[in-house]
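Progress against Task 2.4 (sequence-to-structure conversion) is shown through the following example record, which the project officer requested during the mid-term review.
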Amino acid sequence: MKLIRFLTILLFLSALLVQTAQAARIKDIAQLGGVRENQLIGYGLVTGLTGTGDDLKKVLFTRQALYNMMVRQGITINPADFAKINSKNVAAVMITAALPPFAKPGSTIDVQVSSIGDAESLAGGNLLMTALKGPDGKVYAVAQGPMTIGAFSFGGKAAKAQKNHTTVGRIANGAIIEQTVPVALGENGVLSYRLRTSDFTTASNMSEEINATFGEGTASPVDSTTVNVTIPEAFKSQPVPFIAQLETLNVKTDTNARVVINERTGTIVMGEDVRLSTVAVSHGNLSIVIREAADVFQPNPLAAGETVVVPQTTVEVTEDQSELVVLKAGVSISEVADALNAIGATPRDLIAIFQAIKAAGAMHGELVVL
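Structure tokens generated for the chain above:
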């Protein structure tokens, strides 16, 4: 029953792939070159914890960061006396965020906060003002505020209850953008679109659809990933309306025939274009069960001798019977599913079968193992 349910889901996913293969919007299959997010990172301190922060005697970088913060605030502390402080209400954290394209100074973005010391929990903590820098070392945003972690952890020495991760939190709209990354939109009157999945056929279809809508010569495929689009004269001063119309065009997409398997989870996904040559498949399971037990022999009361433990090992070997099934050339996904269902193959059996079919040269498509 589980196998039938699995094959039903597999066929449903295949049907979705067929619908996707018929037509998709340009905005769903391609990205405008240069219009992307940029990663930001920063190092800061979270305060206000209830004894669940870093141990300042063990985590030296937290102690140093706390000392530097107090000095910047005008608090004079003798370094020798500061080393005696053992407060666990502070934690060192790393802050990460994604700077969206065309973000303007003054707008806000979400930030992720994660502990890098030995803090037990960041619940109830408040992030102090932290500069977020890009790969070029420049400050693009400043983060600060109370966190939400969606987790809890309570317990003592003998027992503990915990839900989700208590050392990772999030601050909604927790960073204010200070400067943005300049984007040259339509530089030299040309837009460069990058396909999210490289394919020569899709790139050609995309170019033909654009030319059919806006005129011949508007678009030209450069390779399997890039399609250059020339902005018409009527839109050169204002390219945004042209981009809006362009990205709503439907394009016939194409993909390589591919079977993706994940042995860790027993997941198999087949593309609609996967075809097989005529091949015979037989699959059986060999199970070996080893059991060990210990027999104890004791001497009679008041008799000489020692207690002896003798291990007893039993081995059971079971091999399932299997049938030989012939898969004809050019069979479809549903026919493959029906044939493999006939021999009672489980998802993990299917993984081994597909690998063997590929090794035999009977699968016309790419086999991807995750």
